[in-house]
């Protein structure tokens, strides 16, 4: 998912709309915006792409200087409208809207506990839990939020909007990205820095793991909900999820992908090929890195149809298969008779690579050498990226040789975790889907592992 907020800037909701537009790649199943004018908090949301959900007149009632928004990529909970965010509660302490990116790993346990106490959940997603944890506690809202965060385990960034204030929260492992910017005389907060340009905001810094920012009439106030903090940003953000023009923890996503392409090329000193082809769009940076390092020309061997969105995010396998077919075509005149290095960013279920190797061969390619700019994905993610169950992860079912023949590739290579560490330097990352070393306890999810 993607979250975006603006505090203290006029037309906050239209700014949030712009920001969400730049975050659309982070989720296509739903979109919503809440805004507050100091007295009233209003919300509008719906299923689908941002541009499908919002007509210009839907933004008009969302008046006020403070606003938060969300684009949804469902990993926990179904696709019912109740799970589309912001989630708004009208409680004794006033109205509260919340947006969430990530996944709470102890959500089942917390829900059971809360339901036993009489709480009634509106939807099936895990994002609502924070609202329930806040209720019924004593003290200021900031104190309540802190106490709630201590109970939540897993990956989360939250933006919380009340009638007057806004809060931004990042989990103590910093699993999902969140950045703070200056926007006019106010602030903006975004899952990715690429959205700052949309509202002419200036990047200030990343929100730190375990940090809670309170934005109020008193300005910006920073506190931490725990002493145990680690930087453990999701490596898949760099590999696939984030936009190449975003910087995460100070590192530019495109440059990091290029580095992984360079490292792949370093393993291929002996390979005799004619050209490098990337799988648009997510692997283009890595393919450029490979091309520069190897001296092989980068070619447009695959063309992407602009009118198809991210295929992986589609919920069923048949939709994903159809998606790849609709999305990508081989450029026959370029690839016929050629030996091709095909670079993709990741291999999850194998849908994309298998289909593309076939496409290139049908277009007359002589050899196709598949190079994946990440390690083999062997373990599921429980932190908000839908790499799904272990059975679906093709690398956990097949040996490298089996995989190579399944893909009909002439050769096949991956990076290893050490290669990624080399690329990312000092930045602490989560690599759990590659090495199974999860940053948190997995609670009931652990049984499915
Ligand atoms: P596969 O087709 O092997 O199942 O998935 C890999 C392809 O899907 C790559 O082209 C990658 O860019 C894309 N991909 C999409 N979404 C995700 C996601 O959430 N995780 C990952 N790893 N890859 C995705
Ligand atoms: Fe990211 Fe993988 Fe860690 Fe999930 S398990 S947070 S996808 S690195
Ligand atoms: Mg891709």
UniProtKB/TrEMBL annotation:
Similarity field = In the C-terminal section; belongs to the purine/pyrimidine phosphoribosyltransferase family.
Q: Which cofactors is this protein said to need?
A: Mg(2+); [4Fe-4S] cluster
Enumerate the GO terms in the molecular function aspect. Answer: 4 iron, 4 sulfur cluster binding; amidophosphoribosyltransferase activity; magnesium ion binding
Function description = Catalyzes the formation of phosphoribosylamine from phosphoribosylpyrophosphate (PRPP) and glutamine.
Catalytic residues identified in the record: 1
**First-level EC class:** transferase
Give one GO biological process term. purine nucleobase biosynthetic process
Q: Which Pfam families match?
A: GATase_7 (PF13537), Pribosyltran (PF00156)
Residue ranges constituting the Glutamine amidotransferase type-2 domain according to the UniProt record: 1-218
Q: What is its EC number?
A: 2.4.2.14
The cofactor binding remark recorded in the entry reads: Binds 1 Mg(2+) ion per subunit. Binds 1 [4Fe-4S] cluster per subunit.
User: CDD domains attached here?
Assistant: GPATase_N, PRTases_typeI
Pathway assignment: Purine metabolism; IMP biosynthesis via de novo pathway; N(1)-(5-phospho-D-ribosyl)glycinamide from 5-phospho-alpha-D-ribose 1-diphosphate: step 1/2
Instruction: State the gene name recorded for this protein.
Output: purF
Keyword Thylakoid belongs to the record: no
Q: What is this protein called?
A: Amidophosphoribosyltransferase
Tell me the InterPro entries matching this sequence.
GATase_2_dom, Ntn_hydrolases_N, PRTase-like, PRTase_dom, PurF, PurF_N
Domain of life from the UniProt record: Bacteria
């Amino acid at each position: 998912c993607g979250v975006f907020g603006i505090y203290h800037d006029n037309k906050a909701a239209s700014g949030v709309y712009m920001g969400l537009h730049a975050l659309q790649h982070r989720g296509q199943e739903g979109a919503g915006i809440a805004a507050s004018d100091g007295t009233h908090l209003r919300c509008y949301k719906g299923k689908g792409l941002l541009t499908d959900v919002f007509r210009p007149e839907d933004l008009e009632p969302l008046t006020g200087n403070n606003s938060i928004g969300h684009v949804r990529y469902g990993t926990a909970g179904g696709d019912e409208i109740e799970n589309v965010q912001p989630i708004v509660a009208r409680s004794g302490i006033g109205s509260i809207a919340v947006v969430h990116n990530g996944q709470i790993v102890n959500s089942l346990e917390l829900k059971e506990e809360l339901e036993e106490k009489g709480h009634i959940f509106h939807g099936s997603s895990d994002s609502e839990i924070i609202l329930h944890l806040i209720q019924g506690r004593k003290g200021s809202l900031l104190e309540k939020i802190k106490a709630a965060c201590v109970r939540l385990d897993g990956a989360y960034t939250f933006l919380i909007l009340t009638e007057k204030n806004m809060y931004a929260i990042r989990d103590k492992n910093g699993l999902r990205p969140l950045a703070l910017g200056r926007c006019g005389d106010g602030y903006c907060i975004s899952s990715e820095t690429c959205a700052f340009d949309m509202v002419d905001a200036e990047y200030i810094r990343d929100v730190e793991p375990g940090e809670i920012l309170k934005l109020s009439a008193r300005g910006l106030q920073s506190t931490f909900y725990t002493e145990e903090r680690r930087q453990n940003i999701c490596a898949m953000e760099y590999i696939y999820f984030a936009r190449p023009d975003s910087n995460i923890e100070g590192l530019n996503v495109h440059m990091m992908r290029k580095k992984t392409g360079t490292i792949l090329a370093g393993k291929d000193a002996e390979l005799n090929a004619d050209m490098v082809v990337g799988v648009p769009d997510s692997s283009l940076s890595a393919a450029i890195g490979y091309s520069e390092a190897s001296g092989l020309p980068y070619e447009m061997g695959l063309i992407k149809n602009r009118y198809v969105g991210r295929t992986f995010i589609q919920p069923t396998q048949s939709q994903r298969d159809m998606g790849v077919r609709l999305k990508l075509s081989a450029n026959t005149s370029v690839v016929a008779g050629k030996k091709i290095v095909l670079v993709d960013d990741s291999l999850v279920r194998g849908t994309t690579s298998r289909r593309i190797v076939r496409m290139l061969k049908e277009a007359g390619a002589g050899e196709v050498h598949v190079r994946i700019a990440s390690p083999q994905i062997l373990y599921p993610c429980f932190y908000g990226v839908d790499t799904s169950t272990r059975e679906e992860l093709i690398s956990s079912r097949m040996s490298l040789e089996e995989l190579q023949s399944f893909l009909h590739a002439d050769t096949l290579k991956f990076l290893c975790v050490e290669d990624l560490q080399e690329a990312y330097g000092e930045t602490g990352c989560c690599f759990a889907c590659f090495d199974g070393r999860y940053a948190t306890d997995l609670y009931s999810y652990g049984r499915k592992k």
